[in-house]
Design brief:
This protein has 40 residues and is mostly helical. 92% of the residues lie in helices and 0% in strands. The longest helix has 37 residues. The protein is rod-shaped. It starts with a helix and ends with a helix. 0% of the residues are buried. Keywords: Membrane, Transmembrane, Transmembrane helix.
Length: 40
Amino acid sequence: MDLTGREVFKVNNYKNNINTLFANKVFIFVFLVIVNRLEV
């Protein structure tokens, strides 16, 4: 049963990927809002 270590690693990796994707979307959204305000 090598389940424990690898499964925990997979779950942590999955959570990290979701967190980075979410952070990237937030960053892009904020960046677009700032650019739009500067252009107006």
